[in-house]
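ZP: hey, is the adenosine-5'-diphosphate complex queued? I don't see it on the tracker
AM: it wasn't, my bad. submitting now with these inputs:
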Amino acid sequence: MTGPPILRAQGVHKTFRSRDRSGRRHETAALRGVDLEVPLGGSLAVVGESGSGKSTLARILVGLDAPDSGTVHLDGVDFPASTGATRRALQRQIQMIFQDPYRSLNPRMSVRSALRFAHHAEQPGADADEACRTMMQLVRLPESYLDRRPHSLSGGERQRVNIARALIARPNVVVADEAVSALDRSVQADILNLLADLRRELRLTLVYITHDVHTVSAVCEDVLVLHQGLVVERGRAATVMADPTADYTRALVAAAPTVDRPLVTVRPTSPPVAGVPS
Ligand code: ADP
Ligand code: MG
């Protein structure tokens, strides 16, 4: 797909410094010069093993963390460097769906309160109840679930609430960090199908972060392979996953358990382009 990049990262570096119990300093170079580009309405998978820097990248892309060096442009504006009203407007455009549906919702808050809270943070004064009902429809949950608390929901239902919470700000870009990894295989497919539907309906741009090579080409058009903070391969997802060229990607694909393979069948079509009848 062509089009201007809605999201572009250039030369992103991030090093974590810590001390162990005996006071020795440790440095972890989590990201070492990462470049990426996602066109408006496009989808990019970021795949790599645990510790490869995926969550660090996700947090920097959505503005939860700042890079040590390098830039992130969202809709053409330098996001980490932005302040005030500009930053708030950009913040609303990009939202994260977190990994763990059990820990990412406050157990004491009803679904309605969680959604209202997110809605208020982004659009104070707007009609939150109407927005809550719309969100439940979007994620295919009954309206009555608004009065439930997380403990009475299944893992898949919780993740639907997490998606609703991310979408209530009406973002253009969604970053899903291992958004289905904690779920059963069959529920993973339901949630990935939902994400594919929502992409089409809302014309979302998706950054899909995963360690699961089998879902990559079902969910995304493009892929970037991360290894120890470096991009080792990138390209069209179907091509890279079927015929990887980097040794690391080959090893990653070869090591993935094939018993997990068949459940995900989603293959999103490109979102409709304005003015072109679909
Ligand atoms: P992934 O999401 O791919 O598993 P992360 O981005 O979480 O990888 O972590 C990348 C590397 O950075 C790991 O070695 C991790 O231990 C380290 N790291 C991440 N966050 C911190 C932190 N806050 N402090 C120290 N090290 C961190
Ligand atoms: Mg992670």
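AM: back. Residues 54-55, 178 surround magnesium ion (ligand 2) (CB under 6 Å).
ZP: great, adding it to the tracker
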